[in-house]
Amino acid sequence: MLAYTAPTTVEDAVRALAGASGIAKILSGGTDLLVQLRSGRAKPDLIVDVKRIPDMAGIRARDGGFEIGAATSGAEIGEHGGLRKAWPGVVEAANLIGSTQVQGRASLAGNLCNASPAADSVPALIAARATCVVAGAGGRREVPVESIVTGPGRTSLGRDEFILAFRLPKRPPRASDAYLRFIPRTEMDIAVVGAGVSLTLDAGGVCTDARVVLGAVAPTAVLVADAAAALIGRKLDDAALDALDAAAQRACKPIDDKRGTIEYRTKVAGVIARRTATIAYERAQG
Q1: In what order do the strands lie in the sheet with 24-27?
Q2: pLDDT over 90 (residue 1)
Q3: What is the Cα–Cα distance from 170 to 55, expressed in whole angstroms?
Q4: Interacting residues of 42 by C-beta distance below 8 A, sequence separation 6+
């Protein structure tokens, strides 16, 4: 029989997870979990609803950057002017999770911990150097977003752990980001390829820092160091974009499925990386 609890403190939530006799699932937004429950794909013994814990929802200024509660909805993220200005790519990615109705509930933590290779918010968060605040029986720890997902449907979180918040760092001058995805049909389809790019420029328009991340082309989102290296120390000219394209394609390890072949996805990854980098570069120029 499925049990349900809605703790009001982090400590109570941790105790519920640690004491579960079988499989426990966190409910923060529920847009993935509820569908999985109804289809029979997920059969937990306990659901721990964390939405009643203070600060699990909301966006707060922190050290010049932002802290986003793990249960904050995509709709709230999209309406936050300061976050849109500092991290437009993160907001773009969060606002691609489902329909307008879904946006009222969908959360970054749910999108990450569902651990789909095609999750839209994950490449953008990794490109932004976002970190997760994780709570568990051993206390709290802060870890990079890229360390959470270990494979399709799998995460590095312990059975007694859950995500409390995401932290985005302070933006330096002349810096911005972008996220794009390619989908075969409608706005609510799953990405064939997604790309998140974050760039910092000097006063002359030369890239001094870059993060390039691909989604839906490997078992987890791929942080492409060679693609970043192709941009750093250069302006975004055709040669830099060609090198970025080639590096993105080399990093791909996709599968054939109904949304695209390996060859097609690999080619598209280079194209989407180019377009995303161009948007981020234009934004960083001001």
Answers
A1: 3-5, 46-49, 24-27
A2: no
A3: 20
A4: 25, 33, 36
pLDDT single digits (tens) 88-115: 999 999 999 877 888 888 899 999 999 9
Instruction: With beta carbons less than 8 A apart as the criterion, state whether 46 and 24 touch.
Output: yes
Side by side, which strands form the sheet with 131-136? 59-62, 65-69, 162-168, 131-136, 139-144
Contact, 110 vs 119, CB < 8 A?
no
Q: What is the average pLDDT across 122-137?
A: 98
Closest by CA position to 253, among listed 226, 214, 203 = 214
Measured CA distances, 128 to 5, 37, 90, 244, 262 (Å)? 34, 32, 8, 18, 27
Percent of the chain clearing pLDDT 90 (strictly above): 83
In 3-state terms the chain splits into helix, strand, coil percentages (rounded to 5) of: 35, 25, 40
Q: What is the mean pLDDT of the chain?
A: 94
Judged against a pLDDT cut of 70, whether residue 186 lies above it is answered with no
CA distances from 273 to 21, 121, 136, 171, 189 (A): 45, 16, 36, 22, 19
